């Protein structure tokens, strides 16, 4: 069976990945229930007909966004010790942002050691500056995306107040771009620049062409995700299998 981590990434596109981690969804660990839940998402149901299960369902937990620094207030807290990859930053795996920061961190470490071979303090400071450029923007972006998703889920599932619409001048949000990407080619390319970590997220969110195309697309098609989503009743029926 495909893993639960993969299913969480699939389900997040339908807008309910966090629900899979709640107690009421523990039965999803059963392969038949897992498959039944995925079948409630029309856009993905067809894929199940051509997938060959190779493992059982493996749950994942503790998927927090974390950021660790070895420089505080401009001063290294340790020298001769360097961190890259998950030891610097972990993010919710829904966007698959694990391998790229690890590889860029390894390249940054090699460059830093080559440039400051005899100065451990300079190494720490240089690597921290590179983390600011290559890691922190994507950590902040994932944290903002998760906060927006959780606000929508709390409203949809528990009746919490709806999140206020984003009206920040001169930028669009990830959720707005995700909707527009289903209709507009400029928004589509911009959306996958974000997902592919091609450039810092803010370069995409504040790009004038991306903003114009996204806003015009949302005016024409609305802000709701175009992907059909399962009803509460359909999910309960799938979970009862």
Strand order of the largest sheet: 1-4
Helix percentage: 40-55%
Number of helices: 11
Low-confidence stretches: 1-21
The separation of the N and C termini measures 17 Å
Biggest sheet layout: 2 strands, antiparallel
The share of residues in extended strands comes to: under 5%
Average of pLDDT: 86
Structural class, please?
mainly alpha
Alpha-carbon Rg, integer: 21 Å
Gross morphology is: globular
Description:
The chain has helices at 4-14, 31-39, 42-45, 99-115, 120-134, 136-158, 174-180, 185-195, 201-205, 208-221, 232-239, and strands spanning 66-67, 71-72, 75-76, 89-90. The chain has 241 residues and is mainly alpha-helical. α4 (99-115) packs antiparallel against α5 and α7 packs across α8. The chain is globular and about 65 Å long.
Task: Note the main attributes of this structure.
single chain, 241 residues, mainly alpha, two-stranded antiparallel ribbon, two-stranded antiparallel sheet, 11 helices, 51% helix, globular, disordered N terminus
Task: Give the SSE layout.
Layout: H1 4-14, H2 31-39, H3 42-45, E1 66-67, E2 71-72, E3 75-76, E4 89-90, H4 99-115, H5 120-134, H6 136-158, H7 174-180, H8 185-195, H9 201-205, H10 208-221, H11 232-239
Antiparallel strand pairs: 1-4, 2-3
Describe this structure in a few short sentences.
With 241 residues, the protein is mostly helical. Helix content is 51%, strand content 3%.
């Amino acid at each position: 069976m495909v893993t639960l981590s993969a299913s969480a990434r699939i389900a997040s596109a339908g807008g309910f990945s966090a629900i899979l981690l709640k107690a009421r969804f523990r039965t999803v660990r059963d392969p038949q229930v897992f498959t039944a839940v995925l079948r409630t998402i029309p856009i993905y149901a067809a894929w199940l007909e051509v997938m060959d299960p190779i493992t059982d369902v493996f749950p994942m937990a503790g998927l927090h966004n974390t950021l660790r620094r070895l420089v505080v207030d401009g001063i290294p807290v340790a020298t001769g010790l360097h961190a890259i990859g998950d030891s610097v930053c972990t993010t919710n795996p829904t966007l698959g942002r694990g391998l790229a920061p690890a590889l860029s961190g390894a390249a940054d470490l090699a460059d830093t050691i080559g440039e400051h071979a005899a100065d451990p303090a300079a190494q720490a400071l240089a690597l921290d500056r590179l983390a600011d450029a290559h890691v922190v923007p994507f950590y902040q972006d994932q944290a903002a995306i998760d906060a927006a998703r959780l606000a929508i889920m709390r409203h949809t599932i528990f009746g919490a107040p709806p999140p206020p619409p984003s009206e920040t001048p001169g930028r669009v949000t990830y959720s707005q771009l995700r909707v527009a990407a289903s209709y507009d080619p400029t928004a589509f390319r911009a959306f996958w620049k974000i997902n592919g970590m091609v450039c810092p997220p803010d370069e995409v969110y504040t790009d004038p062409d991306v903003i114009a195309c996204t806003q015009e697309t949302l005016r024409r098609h609305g802000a709701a995700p175009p992907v059909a989503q399962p009803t509460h009743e359909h999910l309960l029926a799938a979970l009862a299998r």
